[in-house]
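@channel sequence for tomorrow's demo:
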Amino acid sequence: MADALLRDETLWEVFLRKAGINPLAAQLMLGLLKKAEGEVLQAYQNNDLWGLRRLVAMSEHERTEIFEGIVGRKTLDGLNSFLRRKVV
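structure tokens (generated this afternoon):
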């Protein structure tokens, strides 16, 4: 996970904020989905999903298992609803 919280919102964080996730939780969630610097090229070469793409590709059950403890059930339900509407 990131060593420190970012002061400026990233585009990924803005996406999560629009889905109802608070700034701290958004950064924590994205930190869990982040690849280490050396793994990014390998991830691209293997077509691995990471970051926001990974979050969107997850099933609702998988998102619940990973993130319910961070954002809570109600917020996660809102995120899942947001993703169902935005991602077709």
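heads up for whoever presents: The mean pLDDT is 80.
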